[in-house]
Write a structure and sequence with these properties.
- The complex is a heterodimer of chains A (181) and B (116).
- Chain A is mainly beta and 181 residues long.
- Chain A has two helices and eleven strands, in the order E-E-E-E-E-E-E-E-H-H-E-E-E.
- Helix content of chain A is 5%, strand content 39%.
- In chain A, the strands form three sheets. A four-stranded antiparallel sheet of chain A has the order 1-2-3-4, with no helix packed on it. Chain A has a four-stranded antiparallel sheet with strand order 5-6-7-8. Chain A has a three-stranded antiparallel sheet with strand order 9-10-11, with no helix packed on it.
- The termini of chain A are far apart.
- Chain B contains no helices and eight strands.
- Chain B has strands at 20-23, 29-35, 44-50, 53-60, 66-69, 75-80, 99-104, 110-115.
- In chain B, strand 3 and strand 4 (53-60) form a beta hairpin.
- Chain B is elongated and about 50 Å long.
- Chain B starts with 19 loop residues before the first strand and ends with a strand.
- The chains are: A mainly beta (181), B mainly beta (116).
- The A-B interface holds A 1-9, 14, 16, 18, 23-24, 26-27, 31, 33, 35, 37-38, 40 and B 12, 65-68, 70, 74, 76-78, 80, 84-88, 93-94, 96, 99, 101, 103, 111-112, 114, 116.
Chain lengths: 181, 116
Amino acid sequence: MVSSMHVSVEGDWALFTIRGCGTTEEFSGLWAFRLSDGEFLHRQKNHEDRTPAGNSLDYLMPSAVVKGTPWLLCMGIDLKTRSAVLLDPRAGIVWSQTFPVGPYLKGRGPAFPPLLGSDDPGEFRRLVSMKAGWGRDPNYPTDIVAAPNGGFLIRDFNGLHRMVDRAPRRERGFFDPGGRV
Amino acid sequence: MLATRPLAASRFPTPLVNPATYASPSGEYQLHIEPSERQGTGPGVYTLTRDGAVEWSWQRGVTLRDAIVTDGGVIVGNALTKGVAHYPSPGNSSDYGELALIILNPVGTPRLDNRF
């Protein structure tokens, strides 16, 4: 059986994310086609492909096209790690950074994720402490999307006060990595 | 006498594919898909409207399970011809049907129809 099928459009990319199990594993992965003419661009297989650091890319989910670049920001996760991945429509993975999952599950994640510079996509900028930014331990960050002003929005699955900005504690789910992304 | 009840099925319940309407981000375009089968395994009737007026309405061989309509009226969607919870018959372990990745032009013609 196929456990999930998801479609999204990011920029000029039509993206199909398939999660199969058993013999349907052959379908699994992220399929990218050019929206404007339907040309096949890339397929990133689950399980088989790995980041340069050797981490598996199970459950790779597209998040956003990085503004001003042709790269697609994705999140990947396996049993031990979470990955932020930049995909090039022609060349596959151009950059990735992995993080242990355990600390996030336990709410002790000190920092997440690396920030990307537009002049040199993939350049490591700095780590942002969600705990410091939110004033609490993150629960289980599951997604990241590019925000219109160049920052990021991070989803904290089942976290308290997701995307809430209120007194007295001004929790913010928004980070601006210096205005250039 | 003890009451009895049937054993619960050990497989996942088969997800249904209901009639669905997908709107473009601007709301200008709306795509309605009417499945012919409860599990989305058969043809579907697709109707694209623009500002409420029907642009086209066609039956296609597959029913999209998930779809997006862009502000230009392009449709992106996928389908599995035997459904997501189909279990192959004994002796034919690879019989999961076809995975269809679809892009339709604003006039309803296929821009992409890849089957795997």
